[in-house]
UniProtKB/TrEMBL annotation:
Record Gene3D superfamilies: CBS-domain
Protein name: CBS domain-containing protein
Record keywords, A-Z: CBS domain
InterPro entries for this protein: CBS_dom (IPR000644), CBS_dom_sf (IPR046342), Diverse_CBS-Domain (IPR051257)
Signal sequence, renumbered to the chain: none
Domain of life: Bacteria
Record-annotated CBS domain positions: 95-140
Record CDD domains: CBS_pair_SF
Naturally occurring in which organism (per UniProt): Streptomyces toyocaensis
Length: 140
């Protein structure tokens, strides 16, 4: 698990809480948490039913491993070599959060900087044990 690192340089933010708030102040509920052994097809069905654009993916111990987006899963499903046996653990990539997480004490500005730098639309917020607490997303 890689927590978001603190940066000494300041970042300008459009979020009103960013100047002094932490991600715990602005995060959304984690939403559906799914096992990394779930197939892409089932994960897309869960996303549709939950009306969400991302899923928190957990390992067999219940620890958050990454966040995967609907766009990523759709791209995998339409790609060459796709079969209905492809699992979420097989599709983790750099454009997902890929092991990058925020602590609830991370400032909004720090999280926003990392998300913009890594081109992430959302970032999971986890506790010290790796359990998903919520998700922070960039506003469009």
């Amino acid at each position: 698990m890689t927590p978001v690192q603190t940066h000494s340089r300041s970042t300008r933010s459009t979020h009103p809480a960013a100047a002094r708030g932490t991600v715990a102040d602005v995060m959304h509920a984690a939403g559906p948490q799914v096992w990394d052994g779930m197939t892409v097809e089932v994960a897309l069905s869960v996303m549709t039913a939950a009306r969400t654009g991302h899923l928190v993916v957990c390992d067999e111990d219940g620890q958050c491993t990454h966040l995967v987006s609907r766009a990523r899963l759709t791209a995998v499903r339409t790609g060459l070599g796709y079969t209905d046996r492809v699992r979420l653990r097989d599709v983790a990539r750099a454009d997902d959060t890929g092991g990058l997480f925020a602590s609830p004490l991370t400032t909004v500005a720090e999280a926003e900087h990392v998300m913009r730098h890594r081109r992430l639309g959302a970032l999971p917020v986890v506790d010290e044990d790796g359990n998903a607490l919520g998700v922070i997303a960039l506003s469009r």
